[in-house]
Amino acid sequence: MNPALHAELLPRLMSDFSFKIAGEFLRQGKCPACGKRELYTNREKPWVL
Prior knowledge:
By secondary structure, the chain is α+β, with helices and mostly antiparallel strands. It is 31% helix and 31% strand. The chain is built from 1 helix and 3 strands, in the order αβββ. It has a 3-stranded antiparallel β-sheet with strand order 1-2-3, with helices on one face.
């Protein structure tokens, strides 16, 4: 992933979905559809939620 895009994307994911950092993963993100904290993604490769 382009480093500039990655640097812009991570803060946006943190603010939009309220992820918690857990090692190499972003966990417990808030689902926009149901509001449950079930989203997760890899911190270095966050192209799939």
